[in-house]
Amino acid sequence: MRIMLIDHYAGSERLGMEFRPYYMAREWLKAGNEVVIVAASFTHLRKINPQVENDFDEQEIDGIRYVWVKTPEYHGNNAGRGVNILTFVRKLGRSAARLAEKYRPEAVISSSTCPLDIRPAAKIARRAGAGLFFEIHDLWPLTPMELGHLSKWNPMIMALQSAENYAYKHSKKIISILPDADKYVRLRGYDDSKVVYVPNGVFACDIDLKEANSPQVETLRRLHSQGRFLVGYTGNHSVSNALEYFIDASALLQKEQVTIVLVGGGNYKDTLVRHVRENGCENVLFLDPVPKSEMGALLAELDAAYMGLAKSNLFKYGVSPNKLFDYLLAAKPIIYAVEASNDPVRDAGCGVSVPVGDCEAIARAVRSLIAAGPQGRAELGRRGREYVLQNHEYGALARRYAQALEPGAQAKKGE
Hints:
Rossmann fold, single chain, alpha/beta
């Protein structure tokens, strides 16, 4: 099968996030499919953005064909990002016929978080006689409405809503990263039987435990040798990660020789550092990000991991956070401060779930993991790793995804 995956933010292991399109494409290629990924040349998520000369430049990465659509750079979540998105959509639409004829896809997937890609994707699918598919990452326009407190009559929201409606109506299948997106699709008045749940995933080798000597890893080793109990968060520091409650729990854990460790960067990090300084939180440590190749060695030094998300109505349709899967794969017991329709930590029996915003509950969870001892924590970690490999291994997820695409490959030209 010839698959075209349109994902504005698609990256690779070298370029950085987002990784899901790369991992899916890699597995589809192994199964004998042809894959082309169409993505914007610039996004804020990547560590490295490709250098593009033309409106459409082709590049092969690890055997995967990428088509980079030249888009302008931007900084922050502002008008520049909007121009970037609209440039991508406009160029894609104008070149739909050429892309269809050159790559002859049998399945076209519109997978960008923003649903505006769906109409250019539909043009390509019609011209190629391909099936049209829509992948849900976050629920737009519900997400900007909830987080930005925007009215449904806002012109931008109306455009996003029109695109989402089109996607739900015209797609052969709706692939969802969220476990309960079918409820949302049904609430919108569309056929929820088209929804196929394919969550985010892992590879067994994603967490590399090879020796690493970065300053971050060495710092954690030194603290461990001093008898500190290390509870860590690794990833982006943003308001949505509810990290202030994790930090505030540190004041309740002074007697337990606990160090709260936050590894990463992000637009909220300076605010958190200032919060720690103003409140005299002596047992909180901020570390710079580490490369993916050293994440396994860093996680190995933690006694437990923290995962939190601020409360949101969005989560009644479920969550599928990549960071959680890193912790599960690394066999870390987890303190899980997320209120959603699903709870993988509870399902796996690999940690403690606590209410969002309750620093006392976080402190109690840390104490319970200390009391469990090394063997008890190792058993929790084992359960988590077993769970994630059984339910979220990318090879199996890619096969499930490809099976959902197969009926669409039979669509007639012009349908």
